[in-house]
Design brief:
This protein has 13 helices and eleven strands. By secondary structure, it is of the alpha+beta class. This is DoxX family protein.
Length: 430
Amino acid sequence: METTLPSPADWALWKKLIFRFFFIYFLLYIFFNPNGVLPYIDDIYNFYITPFHGVAVWIGKHILHLSQPVTTFTNGSGDTTYDNIIILFIAFLALISTIIWSALDKGTRNYNKLLYWLMVVLRYYVAITMLSYGFFKVIKLQFPFPSFGRLMEPYGNSSPMGLAWTFMGYSTGYNYFTGIAELSCGFLLMFRKTTALGAVMTLIVAGNIMAINYCFDVPVKLLSTTLVMMALFLILKDIKRFSNFFLFNKVAASSDITPHRFRKKWKNITLTTIKYVLIAYTVIFDLVGVIQGESQYGAKAPKPPLYGLYEVKTFILNRDTLPPLTTDTTRWNKMAISYAGNTMLKFMNDSTNYFAFNVDTVKRKIVMNKYSDTVHKWLFTYTLPKKDSLVLSGAYKKDSLKIAFHQIDVNKFLLVRRGFHWINESPFNR
């Protein structure tokens, strides 16, 4: 006979305290990091978050006594000083609120209803985040194939994050594997009957994301850690069932997943409608976004003018042909043009740097400058004397330059041409 594990009528004090803390902590975290989970939420976030920038600056100066003032807020990095201060601020507010809540609310036997709605919020927050991650991997936007610049950059010169991006970006198949895993987590969490499986999968998948972020210095540590915490929280409701099944070889009773219903029918219909509209919006919005992204900056995006990897054959500075000496920090060695408006130069001493690189294909002119110096620019005209050849003629400051290039066939790189082999008579590790 099938049994259902009922929700406890009386909670222990320690359970109430933990719930109160995390109820407030998670809701505050979502308030400060909505992560685009609702339509137009980021626009609303940009409106209400500004005052808290000042709060974080004040905390950093007067409470934490930081040696440097907080001037950088959430950007491409989610692990800025500001973000860490906000986490401390959230934890402090949750702790104070828990103390006040506990002092005022001594008669409540349980928080089963609040727990139900908190889990709904966490399910959808994690689910929509995982769906976004998954779509960006399946369409291969987050981790593009290694650019020309990456291919000619020595391993030792790459950052840990750059190494992780190269590893992930190399394999389309592995992107499909991880992307489908993340999509599965998202879809499973959106429905009550599959929440337990979705939470376990999310713990594993988000745990791997968190490990990569920590071990390869990827600045999304705070968000990935919180996703793992939320997955653990979702699992805790069924921890006894999991323990019985996996550890103690006992019967695992089914979980009570009966939805909380309102007395008025129209409220239940409205809630169900909102649920499926949100799911449809998330899937359609993500799909449209990644498909557009693929054609704008992904694999199907138009290639920039002069796209390719070039090796310098002759480098003439003020009518003096510079020999290819490995100690020369002036002479160029290779030039990579992978993205519009940008190029990477590799110099003879193996150092590399990125530059702004704007091409006028009508006048056949190029304007190029260091990102740190927008005043001094290289001004070139270019010619394509024959296939796979490029010649730049121009000036930089008071120097005249003429540089002849030969385009490199990137398929000669071992990383590009090796591919997949089902049979290996011996390990091919280079």
